[in-house]
Design brief:
globular; about 100 residues; 3 helices; lyase (chains A, B); Pterin_deHydtase (chains A, B); homodimer; Gyrase A, domain 2; 4 strands
């Protein structure tokens, strides 16, 4: 079952993301990152790959796209805050964006 | 060359869109619409099809997605307002969303 990140989880799993361009929105316990690509095709290609993982894991981002920029926000509505699923999807997105 | 919609163009081309769920943001001369689908796969499928047309026509939307909802805003930066390209893409999106 999905649970909110523990204090230990935050230290070990969240901290590396925050040092890799993600920022914490404490008001709603979510993480966000802006990804900038070379062009629209690359940006939307990133979204397409991420979308497939999101659906596979049944955990979906809030995201927007303007040409070559994609803004992503991750949080877990079921626990009203960050869970391991957000960490997993954030890491996957970083990997895809490469 | 892309030109801003004329008064006639607004009447003949924009009006039907406004009667089909699009709304006009007069402050920046843009049109917006919220599309709601059955699920994430259908919503992202819509985005994928629209993305290919957008790239083909070299005219890209500002859009966001949260699960089954897609919010789209169209405007033409080159003319600082609405052009026939926005009408063309809006119609295509309506057709795809079907």
């Amino acid at each position: 079952m999905t649970e909110k990140l523990s204090d230990t989880g935050r230290k070990t799993m969240l901290e590396p993301l925050l040092q890799n361009g993600w920022s914490l929105d404490e008001t709603r316990d979510a993480i966000s990152k802006e990804f900038v690509f070379a062009d629209f095709v690359t940006a939307f290609g990133f979204m397409t790959r991420a979308a497939i993982w999101a659906e596979k894991w049944d955990h979906h981002p809030e995201w927007s796209n303007v040409y070559k920029t994609v803004n992503v926000t991750l949080t877990t509505h079921d626990v009203e805050g960050l869970s391991a699923l957000d960490v997993k999807l954030a890491r996957k997105m970083d990997q895809i964006a490469g």
